[in-house]
Amino acid sequence: MSADHLPEHPEFLWRNPDPKKSYDAVIVGGGGHGLATAYFLAKNHGMTNIAILEKGWLAGGNMARNTTIIRSNYLWDESAAIYEHSLKLWEILPEELEYDFLFSQRGVMNLAHTLGDVRESMRRVGANQLNGVDAEWLDPKQVKELCPILNINDNIRYPVMGATYQPRAGIAKHDHVAWAFARKCDELGVDIIQNCEVTGFIKDGNKVTGVKTTRGTINTEKVGLCAAGHSSVLAEMAGFRLPIQSHPLQALVSELHEPVHPTVVMSNHVHVYVSQAHKGELVMGAGVDSYNGYGQRGSFHVIEEQMAAAVELFPIFGRAHVLRTWGGIVDTTMDASPIVGATPVENMFVNCGWGTGGFKGTPAAGLTFAHTIATGTPHTLNKPFSLERFETGALIDEHGAAAVAH
Amino acid sequence: MLLFSCPNCGPRNETEFHYGGQAHVAYPESPDQLSNREWAEYLFYRENTKGLFAERWVHAAGCRKWFNMVRDTVSYEIQAVYGMGEQAPEGLTAPPAAQAKSQPLAPAEAGTTTASEGV
Ligand SMILES: Cc1cc2nc3c(=O)[nH]c(=O)nc-3n(C[C@H](O)[C@H](O)[C@H](O)COP(=O)(O)OP(=O)(O)OC[C@H]3O[C@@H](n4cnc5c(N)ncnc54)[C@H](O)[C@@H]3O)c2cc1C
Ligand SMILES: [Zn+2]
After folding, report:
1. CB contacts < 8 Å between A and B, how many?
2. φ, ψ dihedrals at A376, nearest 5°
3. Rounded distance between C-alpha atoms, residue A197 and residue B107, angstroms
4. Kind of pairing, strands A339-342 and A264-267?
5. Is residue A183 a contact partner of residue A10, using CB atoms and an 8 Å limit?
6. pLDDT 10s per residue in chain A (406 long)?
7. A386–B49 CB contact, under 8 Å
8. How far apart are CA A311 and CA A318, in angstroms?
9. Who among A291, A377, A393 is closest to B111 (CB)?
10. DSSP states of A57-80
11. b/e per residue, A202-240, with b = 16+ CB within 10 A?
């Protein structure tokens, strides 16, 4: 086993155009979701007179801050369908986008530490298998075989009682994913406009007709919001509310190490997740800060707890150093599922609420959201994820069910 | 790590406290009269203010009493701590939950019909 080399960049990535006076559609937010949406709008629906408006630099939000875990082992049918579709797209996208982003299907393990965990996990494995998602139950010995550095002793505080395993899951090089989408968007004629913050909306009655930005007013027939942690700020500007709470979520990396960690390990119960990046850093994440926050940093005590768990599970990490920590702002919903669809404002659509797990959803979010923007109707995959479900009570409650605790 | 001033115990480490979300969300006065939309507002819609935010905390590892706090969600500066049942000090008011009611989805837009409004 040796560390992977990062792929070479193509010679040209994207232009930096000035905003035009009007577009057929404007996507707010140049993260992975905004870029994927624009890509599928252009590719699948022939909408090329469109712009992505990004207040900072391209994909500098959560897209640049996440721990890049990709899996589809969700409990409920609706989630399994959209995340599994996403995983299938991940499998073909490097070729389609003509840009390698090191999608590495090294498998994801979700550890179980209590009898309750074990039962929940086995139930999820069964549900996954019924939904055509690859899933297996591993006993502690099998866990150890797949990831030899894990401590499976039963005299520790949270002994490993087994794990669910999705072999097709893995990680990808997130920056390269964004650049791959951006390059194709540009090639298809999409304007990617950075340093352009949306500060308000222009409406004709209840219909959106334009956006106000720090680079002037832009007329548009349709608006798609892909602003992750800032969606409710934008919704407020447009005059409606979203059932979203923004929380800081942080991650950290160690210095580079020889390849020691062959898979991705997540522990819901003690809350730490670890993978080894292509270059060799150990990449770790934990839970969100409990309170609402827009500061792109996280609480120190969260790191402390996550480290305690990591060192117990992986004694070999005891002498590793934390090199960098950072935070992003994730948009959580009460049922821990995204919102993709129409809003109370005509011609305005929203893609948000992916919370702590939306990187894996990037391709499917883009594909289905583009369908909704282009046709004005939901795609079969995003239909259950409408804003309306909070009123009808048809919630897709993935809290604790989706193999993460937040 | 933040330092919170519990009204009963004084300054204590953030880790002793548990978060309770937006403050001043009153239980509906006539629950039997609410439409589905209003129930959704009460159950699932909370302010998500970027800036001053009134929220509830409980001193879980101390006196175990709830209190209100106004905190800036960008700088995390704590502007006021006050008791349950009290209002935020002048000038630090958080938006009352009931004030900003949003419209239901227009049926044509949603692609399906909206839940009935006048239950
Ligand atoms: C620490 C951390 C770890 C994570 N780990 C994982 C993981 O392992 N697996 C996984 O699947 N997911 C993970 N996630 C979640 C994932 O990153 C997000 O769900 C996903 O990135 C959200 O979609 P996005 O990429 O478009 O958001 P972002 O990249 O945040 O894009 C939103 C963009 O909107 C822009 N914007 C905001 N307001 C405005 C405005 N007014 N005008 C113009 N632009 C605006 C922002 O600048 C930003 O670039 C993690 C997140 C964090 C923070
Ligand atoms: Zn106290």
Report:
1. 106
2. 75, 5
3. 31
4. unpaired
5. yes
6. 455 677 788 899 999 999 999 999 999 999 999 999 999 999 999 999 999 999 999 999 999 999 999 999 999 999 999 999 999 999 999 999 999 999 999 999 999 999 999 999 999 999 999 999 999 999 999 999 999 999 999 999 899 999 999 999 999 999 999 999 999 999 999 999 999 999 999 999 999 999 999 999 999 999 999 999 999 999 999 999 999 999 999 999 999 999 999 999 999 888 899 999 999 999 999 889 999 999 988 999 999 999 999 999 999 999 999 999 999 999 999 999 999 999 999 999 999 999 999 999 999 999 999 999 999 999 999 999 999 999 999 999 998 777 665 5
7. no
8. 6
9. A377
10. STT-SGGGTS--EE----SSHHHH
11. ebeeeebbbbebeeeebebbbbbbbbbbbbbbbbbebbb
Q: Do A233 and B18 touch (CB under 8 A)?
A: no
- Does A67 contact ligand 1 (Cβ within 6 A)? yes
| SS3 of chain A: helix, strand, coil, percent, to 5 | 30, 25, 40
List CB contacts of A324: < 8 A, sequence separation 6 or more. Answer: A252, A253
Query: Ligand 2 centroid to B16 CA: how many Å?
Result: 9
Pairwise CB contact (< 8 Å): B45 & A386: no
Question: Could you write out the DSSP letters of every residue in B5-63?
Answer: EETTTEEEEGGG-EEEEES--PPPS-GGG--HHHHHHHHH-----SSEEEEEEE-TTTT
Beta partners for A222? A25
Amino acid present at B72: D
The answer, for A291 touching chain B at a CB cutoff of 8 Å, is: yes
Q: Within A199-241, where are the H helices?
A: 231-238
Give the nearest ligand 1 atom to A64 CA: 29
Question: Which residues of chain B neighbour A245 with C-beta distances below 8 Å?
Answer: 21, 46, 48
Ligand 1 centroid–CA A227 distance in Å is 7
Residue B42 burial class via C-beta count within 10 angstroms: exposed 0-12, middle 13-18, buried 19 and up = middle
Tokens, residue A138: 């591993």
- CA distances A354 to A43, A277, A331, B72, Å, are 24, 23, 6, 24
Residue closest via CA to ligand 1's atom 31 equals A31
CA distance linking residue A332 with residue A328, whole number of Å: 12
Please tell me whether the interface predicted TM-score (ipTM) of this complex is above 0.90. Answer: yes
Give the CB-side neighbour count of residue A312, counting CA atoms within 13 A: 19
